[in-house]
Amino acid sequence: MKLNIQADCGNSPKRELIRDLTIYFVSYDLEKAMEYMDENIVWTLAGDEPIKGKEPFAAALKEMIDNKAKELTIYSIVTHGKEAAVNGEMTMEDGNVFGFADFYEFASAGSSKVKAIRSYVIHKR
User: Fold this and answer.
1) Interior CA angle at 46 toward 44 and 49, to 5°?
2) Beta-carbon neighbour count of residue 28 at 10 Å?
């Protein structure tokens, strides 16, 4: 997968973690991604019902595995305390392009366990 990541994404451990998680999710490296998820993770994809729990979250991601990204661009990562956000776009193997923004909540400011994710995805035409 081709990666286009702004240089400022490596300035802090939390930014590096969000960068890595984004790459894990887009490339469907679920084993690595799940290491950072809280057992009671809540994932809300805008417009859908929240998915609650680590196993249902992993199952939902596995349903999407057929169409992997061939290119990932991360425009920015912002972190503050126990919250973080990332936005960018991904070009899929089938040619579709999606813009995205993911908002993360960690168990605490010093934790690497993700408690909640709210995702916004738009199909670019």
Assistant:
1) 50
2) 16
Q: What are phi and psi of 115, to 5 degrees?
A: -95, -35
Q: With 0-12 CB in 10 A as exposed, 13-18 as middle and 19+ as buried, what is 54?
A: middle
pLDDT tens track for 76-93: 999 999 999 999 999 999
CA distances (Å), origin 115, targets 24, 47, 72, 109, 122: 17, 20, 24, 11, 24
pTM greater than the 0.70 cutoff: yes
114 forms beta bridges with 37, 106
**Quick one: average pLDDT of 21-27?**
94
